Amino acid sequence: MSYGTFPIWLHSLSIAWLALGALCAVVIAVDEFRCPQKMWVMNLVWPLTALFGTLLWLAAYYAWGRNAPEAGNRDSDPAFPPMVLKGTSHCGAGCTLGDIIAEWTAFAFPKVAVWFGWQTLFAEKTFAVWIIDFIVAFLLGVLFQYFTIKPMRELSVRQGVVAALKADIASISAWQIGMYGVMAVIQFAWFRSSYGSLAKVDSPEFWFAMQLAMLAGFATSYPVNWWLIRAGVKETM
């Protein structure tokens, strides 16, 4: 697997878009410090999703997330599509944090990728790291969901874990499928085809690609979350 030099316009665009995502996340975090979310886990969800959603998620936060009404108060809840956006973002926050942790861990300790099949099952390290991405994202997504569902439904620990698993298995899987698909297109069909190399984890181009891939993950997970919320499997945020 080779890593090369990308054109200056792509390098500059990547840095600018990453900076924009970081700025939007900081703006939301500062506002949440002054006006905390009623559901504490959403204090993590909004900044994390702004890292890839940038201005779109900043606008969504001020439109539907800031000072959100109590969950379950249907009279004051926003329209259903924004509720699905928040539910999907809840899933996406776990995926975002999980992918950040997994990618940097595999970068710092390549042996971890070997444990998951690099050089044995996969010639490309990327595919082994995707397995790690999924596992860590899934665990964090379920953890986020647990701290949402358990108090809202007043469940025991076991019941909360089971409910969180039911709520997030399909949602996170759909997110990761969309994310992997676009990441593969960018890395292999664009970067490698056009520039002869993949983007390395410590490059701005890699994380710019990840921002675009996360948006794709949101798009593939949104209809799944729509169904899960309609069916009562997943709570509204």
TrEMBL record:
The UniProt record lists the keyword rRNA-binding: no
Q: Describe the location of the DUF4396 domain by residue ranges.
A: 83-234
Q: Where are the transmembrane segments?
A: 6-28, 40-64, 127-148, 169-191, 206-229
Task: Report keywords, A-Z.
Answer: Membrane, Transmembrane, Transmembrane helix
Stored Pfam families: DUF4396
Q: Can you name this protein?
A: DUF4396 domain-containing protein
The taxonomic lineage of its organism, from the top, reads: Bacteria, Pseudomonadati, Pseudomonadota, Betaproteobacteria, Burkholderiales
